[in-house]
Amino acid sequence: MEIVKAISIGMIVIGCFFFTTGTIGLLRFPDFYSRMHATGKGDTLAVLISLTGLSIYHFAHHGAILDSLKILLIAVFMFLANPTATHAIARAAFRCGVKPWTREGTK
Prior knowledge:
elongated
């Protein structure tokens, strides 16, 4: 039981780490597209890992397989929806004329 608890808490902590790195990428990267990339990748992975850890923890301590399955289905939905939404937003920005950052603009 303690091993399962340690694994699930470890997954939740790793998910929080990826949320943090995505936020740092959002704040530090130079243009819209690289910021979208950082938040899209970081948040997708963070949600997947965090919700999987939460599902394992909930199943191990409460034995509710249906609730754990619901949490995993939310994780799968987010894993499919986040990259799609990120791509749609980036494509809309490109169509509206948002230019990517280049090194020539910094000199």
